[in-house]
Known about the structure:
CATH class of the largest domain: Alpha Beta
Shape: globular
CATH topology of the largest domain: Molybdenum Cofactor Biosythetic Enzyme, Chain A
Number of domains: 3
Structural class: alpha/beta
Radius of gyration: 26 Å
CATH superfamily of the largest domain: MoaB/Mog-like domain
Number of helices: 15
Amino acid sequence: MKISLLLTGNELMSGDTVDSNSAYIARSLKDLGLVPYIKKVVGDDLPLLVSSIQELSQMTDVLIINGGLGPTVDDLTSVALSQAINSPITRNVDAYAKLDEWATRRGFVMTESNLKQTDLPAVCEIIDNPKGSAVGFRCIANDCLIMCTPGVPSELKPMVENHLLPLIRDHGNIVAKSHITRLRLFGITESGLQDTVNEVFPDWPAEVELGFRVQLPVIEVKFATVGDEFMALNHLWTEKFEAHFRDYVIGRDSIRLSQALNDALRDHSLVLTTAESCTGGQIAAAITSEAGSSSVFEAGYVVYSNRMKQQSLGVSEALLAEHGAVSKAVVIAMAEGAIEKSAADIAVSISGIAGPDGGTDEKPVGVVWMAWGKAGKITARKFFLPMGRIGFQRTATALAMDLVRREVLGLPTDIDYFSELKKKR
């Protein structure tokens, strides 16, 4: 089966938007044993879009068009498809019903611009978009399954998994992999995983396909088998893998590190507080990005300067003068102060040198101290993260969340994170 991708939008051509959607689609197609045959990127040019649809639909069995479904004049996919397959534009009843439901739920009044998203080629059927206002749509032309999808990644991804892959499988009579299990891990590198699997599981069965996908800050590991007769084998080796890497597994399927932390806190009826310096509130932001976070988080403190560490959290001036802001003593005092101020059950604190300036021979750029625990039982640990400022903050945020998750679940917190990132002593 040949599959083509057509990405649309001037922003893709100019570089203002980086195309991550085609990479996601290509990775997802691997679940069907497929790889895209051709990918084409075009701007908001109607004649070029029409000719591209005609060309690709004649060359391939499936054409996925991404982008151009919005309400503005430069969203041309529906009109381009109409002209390419000679099917007139009509107001699609199902698309209108979906848009009306979407608008009603949010208290929006539909405008003519919104209604443009319900005007589709007459032969098309809709593809549900649970997250956005624009439905996807599909048709058959030149014996090619053509599917039009939104350019917003958060809208595209659930559509690929829930609709596009099943439609492709049915169109090509593909025998899908009978069973796919996914685990998510944090704190180990991709190469570290592969080397350990090679050493610990030399008898890994060929019937269980093992795949790694880095989705920072976590790694997704996929176990795939073909045929019902190998489903039990899938379960067996997934369990073996999970048991060996239990220190690093945060959960299954698409679980996020922040979600895993919140779940652990909720399961143990604990409320967390944060005291952040170098991460500037990113830990608190990650926690509160999850639905239901109000049950596990009430307050966090961003104390970037020494003055605010003293004023907000009660860190003593003498302690700061003696040890410096980036030190074991200070992060412990920050955590204790945050618990006292917020009356939370558990705290995490962090102070480090994100760079590119501010380092010394004793404390170079990349050094970060973290502390976590309950009142009277605070643990601290130093890491060295030699990377750019943004990468430093993101990695430090993830490490801090994982340390709290481990503390709550009773897992070891002295593990060797990321063997390639050597701790500076």
